[in-house]
Each structure stands twice: as C-alpha cells, then as structure tokens.
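A quick aside before the break. I want you to see a complete sequence-to-structure record at least once, exactly as it would be stored in a machine-readable document. Don't worry about memorizing anything.
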Amino acid sequence: MTTINTINTINRDRLAGSSADHVKAAWQQFVETVEPIRPDLYRYCRYLTSNAWDAEDLVQDTLARSLVTLGCLFQTKYWPTT
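That is the input. The structure line, written in tokens, reads:
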C-alpha cells in the first residue's frame, strides 16, 4: 500500500468516526426535542383517526418523516461531500 493510499484510508476512517458521532448527537437531539411533544401528537392523531392503532401508526410515520426531513435540511453540515 502506498503512502497516499494509507493517508486516504486514515482520513476516510477518521471521517467515518466523526460522521458517526454527528449522527448519534443529531439523533439524541431529535429524541430530546420530540419526546416532550409526543403525547400531544398522539392525542391529535387519535382525534384524527378515532383509533388507537391507527393513531400510533400516524405518530410513527410523522416522526420518521420529520427525522428524514431534518436530515435532508442539515445534510451538508454532517456529511460533507468529497
């Protein structure tokens, strides 16, 4: 393995660790932000669906979509392009 390949491998591994830390931090922040409002969201979804099972599905879908949307909005911050 050449020196340049070794350096590229080290930089890639360092970036992967850094990205993993950013993802964990972003997930923790998302959970801390969403958890207090989850009961209100569930009540609203229960009102909309009139069914506990459908309400829980709607809550999960809403939270999943919000996580993906936030990830897309802040993508360049956590995953720089090479």
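Two observations worth writing down. The chain is about 85% helix and 0% strand. Residues 3-34 form the longest helix (32 residues). We'll return to this after the break.
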